[in-house]
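Renewal narrative, Specific Aim 1. Our central claim is that a sequence can be written position by position from structural information alone. The example that follows is taken directly from our test logs and has not been curated for this report. It begins with the structure tokens describing the chain, in the order in which they were read.
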């Protein structure tokens, strides 16, 4: 492992905005922060938005800057990626951002029912070889996990360069009888005008990878949807 990467991993442990549980803490049951993010970290009752698979945290940080009266948590398992976002937050002194280094499969160990308002999935791995479709972050099995921690009024946003993930996610939404709000296969193309100025500002945030995709003339897809009421009822009764 490169010396610089080791230094980043060591520095990551010093950032107050980073929560980095050990593997056994991640898998063994509820973490002490579950249900305590408002009281023990943010110190307010403002809504919490998660960015899952946040990478370097560009979206998390940009949204936190746009909405100072909301809280944001970027989640990723890759420490080298999280370091960049955490470094930015540490240097800027932003108080409405945190990062959590875990596998997304264990979300429900870290968040209580109704603790999360919204979820963003930005350029998630489309998993094209996953023929069963269970590994994608928009698979029904993952939506069930989200229902365990989200408020019933919550929104899920998917932004992706993958036409495949876009199509498969729409299929999951239709099959699961979830509630599509708005979607587009090309947010910077002809559909640009269908979005409000606020939506265009939010969707205009560009991650490092999105910049590369756009340079290669790839279209960017977007889906905004809500889980159906039965999803929340099922998870609460489980």
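The sequence written for that structure reads:
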């Amino acid at each position: 492992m490169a010396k610089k990467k080791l230094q980043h991993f060591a520095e990551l442990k010093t950032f107050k905005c980073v929560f980095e549980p050990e593997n056994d803490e991640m898998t063994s049951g509820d973490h002490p922060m579950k249900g305590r993010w408002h009281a023990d970290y943010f110190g307010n009752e403002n809504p919490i938005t998660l960015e899952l698979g946040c990478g370097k945290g560009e979206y998390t940080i940009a949204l936190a800057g746009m909405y100072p009266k909301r809280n944001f948590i970027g989640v990723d398992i890759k420490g080298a990626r999280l370091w960049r976002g955490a470094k930015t937050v540490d240097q800027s002194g932003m108080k409405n951002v945190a990062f959590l280094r875990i596998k997304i499969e264990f979300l429900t160990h870290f968040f209580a029912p109704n603790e999360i308002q919204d979820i963003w999935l930005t350029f998630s791995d489309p998993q094209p070889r996953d023929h069963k479709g269970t590994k994608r972050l928009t698979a029904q099995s993952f939506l069930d996990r989200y229902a365990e921690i989200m408020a019933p009024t919550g929104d899920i946003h998917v932004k992706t360069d993958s036409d495949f993930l876009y199509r498969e996610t729409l299929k999951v939404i239709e099959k699961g009888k979830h509630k599509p709000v708005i979607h587009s296969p090309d947010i910077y193309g002809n559909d640009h005008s269908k979005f409000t100025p606020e939506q265009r500002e939010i969707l205009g945030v560009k991650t490092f990878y999105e910049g590369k995709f756009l340079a290669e003339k790839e279209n960017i897809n977007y889906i905004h949807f809500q889980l159906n009421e039965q999803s929340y009822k099922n998870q609460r009764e489980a």
